[in-house]
Amino acid sequence: MTExxxxxxxxxxxxxxxxxxxxxDQLLAGLRAAAEPTRxxxxxxxxxxxLTVTELTQIVGQSQPRVSRHLKxxxxxxxxxxxxxxxxxxxxxxxxxxxxxxxxxLVPAGDPALALDLERLERIKAARAATxxxxxxxxxxxxxxIRSLYVDDREVEARLLDLLPDAVGDLLDLGTGTGRMLExxxxxxxxxxxxxxxxxxxxxxxxxxxxxGLRHCEVRQGxxxxxxxxxxxxxxxxxxxxxxxxxxxxxxxxxxxRVLRPGGRLVVVDFxxxxxxxxxxxxxxxxxxxxxxxxxxxxxxxxLDPAPPQALPxxxxxxxxxxxxxxxSQLLPSNDRSEPAPERALALAGDTP
Length: 353
Prior knowledge:
This protein is α/β, with parallel strands linked by helices. It has helices at 3-16, 24-34, 37-46, 53-60, 64-76, 98-106, 112-147, 153-163, 180-185, 199-212, 249-258, 277-283, 292-301, and strands at residues 51-52, 80-85, 88-93, 169-174, 189-196, 217-221, 234-240, 260-271, 304-306, 310-314, 317-326. Strands 4, 5, 6, 7, 8, 9, 10 and 11 form an eight-stranded mixed sheet that branches. Strands 1-3-2 form a three-stranded antiparallel sheet. Helix 7 packs across helix 10.
């Protein structure tokens, strides 16, 4: 069978699966890029995890310049995505590349080269997990101290789940930390992305997502004031225990609203006003909680319709969930909070494992 006839057959197969938008030329470019043993192995490996050039070099046992060249060709063909994180670069299967997923799946599981690749990949994952666990052990005492000041995380997460539909579509978690919100909501999402500035936290998040097998979830280093996404890209945007760290909370909410689709929902989870100064002094909180009117004002200014806030008092701090919808959408059911604002203490948590 000729190359063109083979591409035509694959095009027919992909058409049935919703891939008819790819042209013959695009298909041929993808097939040519993958038609080399090392590049096909790289596709199969990147189908399992996001990996750096150094990690991929260790797995396939080839020089970095050669692996980089293979990766460049795969990216140019639209089979892999290249994600920069500071001085590091991660590679993963392109999000919309059905061809890449199908080609990776065609590699025989019993192939000796691939079997060795996957064995080495497991060693890299184990090293990542050890590093993440060390970071967690170092920081767990301060996280536990803050957690003791407010209601159990399970209660907060249960209320958050009630505020969102069973299928959330495309999800964006700002300040994702350890990726806990992606773990919680990933099973409801078609696609989920977490953004954080901390490379250490992103490393922990990658381990947690890999452990749960959530390959449709990813994390990226980024600035919540300047998100790397076009307007109206997500159905749900979260700011979970993040806003109290932010210098310009109104600007962060405005940027979150920019990437929210019509009918989408933004949820902010944070603390009500409190007077625990040690959180500012020892834990870098810039704000000691937020008032309902303040949050609602920022949401309205960003073009959103606020829902009634929901408070979860507990200990010295009260956790509040402020949901808001893109104008014109129908609000999801939510319960009013009965306690008066002046009686609420409050502060933070942070996404911890």
